[in-house]
UniProtKB/TrEMBL annotation:
Keywords in alphabetical order: Transferase
Name the UniProt record assigns to this protein: Glycosyl transferase family 1 domain-containing protein
GO MF terms, alphabetically ordered: glycosyltransferase activity
PANTHER family: GLYCOSYLTRANSFERASE WBBK-RELATED (PTHR46401:SF2)
Xref: InterPro entries: Glyco_trans_1 (IPR001296), Glyco_trans_4-like_N (IPR028098)
Domain Glycosyl transferase family: 204-335
Domain of life: Bacteria
Signal peptide start and end residues: none
Any single Pfam family the record assigns to this protein: Glyco_transf_4
Glycosyltransferase subfamily 4-like N-terminal domain ranges (all copies): 15-170
């Protein structure tokens, strides 16, 4: 089969970017029977796409088009014109990105990571909400199969009447993440000027529950002498708080050391399509405090401390329990993460592609 995959989102440096990169790498490594056509649209970041294609090995051809996201949204999501075949030729399967939904005669597969912009439009930029609503309309009408990372996202989609077309394929932590040495942990702590014991949090925005995490930290800090280190670009204004440090974007090469050097990952997000940091923490042998709802409960059940994400006291008590039960949680997390791999993701995705022949 000829399988086309839109990889435009690899340029953004988001969780969806990581998913796309690792999926494509795993597919090419595993599958030598099918022919892959990888294409992306960008104007300012065409070199990022070129660099990505140069890292790949396997049976594929690549195509890059000078189409910025705004134009792609108008052509494919709003007008829903210009069949993808006009750009890449005839294909058997077309796997669209999570940003645009071009028309095509091929068997249509798409991945929906979560419905956050639709469920919580006030917490998302209006342009993003508009684009994804337009795309979602075409997904409902035309997609043959929809891949989601969790049962939670599948349940969210059920109300739109496409449940029979949805398949759950859990994601996995980046294979580059590994348990670092003590020297590596110290190197990373020196680089970011971190001294003493610290908690780790991922993301700085309302969805990640940043304000409640900081409030919970202030409750536990006096008795435990901790700092709070937050990774991620600050998409919301955070007033300076003693002991809280926001690092911004962190390269993958430093992530293992930051996870493993922490006392616990504090991840009581309000909503996630999957919650990859939970698995990343498990892999780096870091105790996890996460939400008792949705996909976070799925991943955390039996291996993490589950808390009420709307209750600061619950989060604070969860942190205390995670530190107290550190060794037990590390063991449980190590066992849990063994259930997930990118080889499994690729194998199950190929099974979805093969439905084009059924």
């Amino acid at each position: 089969m000829k399988i086309a995959i839109d990889v435009s989102q690899v340029v953004y440096g988001t969780g969806v970017s990581v998913y796309t990169k690792l999926l494509v790498e795993s597919l090419l490594k595993l599958d030598d029977k099918n022919e892959y056509i990888l294409f992306g649209g960008s104007l300012r970041r065409m070199n990022t796409l070129k660099d990505f294609f140069e890292t790949l090995r396997g049976r594929f051809t690549s195509k890059i088009f000078p189409i910025p996201p705004t134009l792609a949204n108008i052509i494919w999501n709003r007008l829903h014109t210009l069949p993808i075949e006009k750009l890449i030729g005839e294909v058997d399967v077309f796997h669209s990105s999570d940003w645009t939904q071009p028309p095509t005669k091929a068997f249509k597969v798409t991945t929906i990571h979560d419905l956050f912009p639709i469920k919580f439009p006030k917490l998302t930029h209006p342009k993003i909400v508009s684009a994804l609503l337009n795309r979602f309309k075409w997904v409902i009408r035309e997609a043959d199969m929809v891949i989601v990372p969790s049962r939670t996202t599948k349940e969210d989609l059920a109300e739109f009447g496409i449940g029979e077309r949805v398949v759950v394929i859990s994601e996995a932590p980046n294979p580059a993440l590994r348990l670092p040495s003590k020297l590596e942990i110290e190197r990373v702590k020196r680089k970011y000027q971190i001294s003493g014991l610290y908690l780790l949090s991922i993301g700085v925005n309302p969805r990640k529950n940043t304000e409640r995490i900081i409030s919970a930290f202030e409750k536990v800090r006096p008795g435990l002498d901790l700092k709070l280190i937050i990774i991620g670009h600050p998409y919301m204004k955070i007033e300076p708080v003693r002991g809280v440090k926001i690092l911004g974007h962190v390269p993958l090469s430093d992530l293992s050391g930051l996870y493993s050097g922490s006392e616990a990952l504090v991840y009581p997000s309000l909503y996630e399509g999957f919650g990859l940091p939970i698995l990343e923490a498990y892999k780096c042998e870091t105790p996890v405090v996460t939400s008792n709802v949705g996909t976070m409960q799925e991943l955390g059940q039996g291996a993490a401390i589950l808390v009420d994400p709307t209750d600061v006291n619950s989060i604070a008590e969860g942190v205390k329990k995670a530190i107290k039960d550190r060794e037990s949680l590390i063991k449980k997390g190590r066992e849990r993460v063994e259930e997930f791999s990118w080889t499994k993701v690729a194998e199950n995705t190929i099974k979805v592609y093969q439905k084009a022949n059924q």
